[in-house]
From TrEMBL:
GO terms for cellular component: outer membrane-bounded periplasmic space. Keywords: Receptor, Signal. Residues 1-24 form the signal peptide. It comes from the Bacteria. GO terms for molecular function: carbohydrate binding. This is Tripartite ATP-independent transporter solute receptor, DctP family. GO terms for biological process: transmembrane transport.
Amino acid sequence: MKRFACIFLVLVLMLSLLTGCASQSEEAAVDTPDETPAATETITMRLAEVHAEGYSTTMGNREFARLVEERTDGRIKIEVYPGGVLGDEKSVTEQVQFGALDFARVSLAPVTEFEPSLNVLMLPYLYKDGDHMFRILNGDIGNQLLANLEENGIVGLAWYDGGARNFYNTQREIKSPEDMRGLQIRVQETRLMMDLITALGASPVPLPFGDVYSALQTGVIDGAENNWPSYDSTGHYEVAKYFTVDEHIRIPEILMTNTKVMESLSAEDQEIIRQAAREAGEYQRTLWLQSEEESKQKVIDAGSVITYLESNEEFQEAVMPLYETHGAGYGDIIEAIINTN
Ligand code: BDP
């Protein structure tokens, strides 16, 4: 009996060694440009998006998929899954990192949990405006920080616009940080955003984007913060009518993939993907600027109480400690961003 088991074990071992070799040679084949998927093979990939159909980022993703399919003569199909059906942003970021998902368009916030150096691109009151942010993202600083992401198995393909974020709540007009005291404010599930709320004297409640509406409605939270189009598209304006234009932060948004997914494609297809993503990013930004205006008008017409601040100095002062905590070690980059026109 014992001998039998022994022979069996040896056989199993030999078999596993043999199959190990086979998959290795397959892997080697993937690295050889000539042996990447045959030009006629059709590949279907998935892209995750939390926003609904019709939102600018979803439309950008659809444009990305269209361009890739067209330029590869239908060999690469990208299926876009909007509305968070593949998971919240924290989860899809992890899925892309592990290679379980091909693409995701997310806010940079969940990505900073893997690569903290990216926090430097989302410090409060860092950019003068959206154009300034895009000059940084598309310049040396943006490229350098994106390269850090590759060490985590993630390839950043394009930047999308997410505008400036503002506070809104169910309770009262916010005219100064003083008015935020005691409010429970939902934030994205990342340290920097939690610290920002604490610095302003309110209590942060980290929650996935899709849970915010009901949390506002049931009073689990008093408020949240986001850009005009998200405040509109999610219907948050229906339940939290006090909106303050404090523009405390601009968080870049990113279309990303996994390094192994990219490496499994021919150099030519990789370039098609990169180029299509860049064009989709530009397209999204055009749509973004229109949607900001449209959403603003829509929520005003629906009765939101919009508070414009004479100055946001008090907010700026209160959040400055975040430059120490989250920007530590990146003083040069911060200075370079501030000094870029
Ligand atoms: C929106 C972003 C989206 C984020 C969401 C949030 O477009 O990527 O998930 O905010 O606050 O503005 O979670």
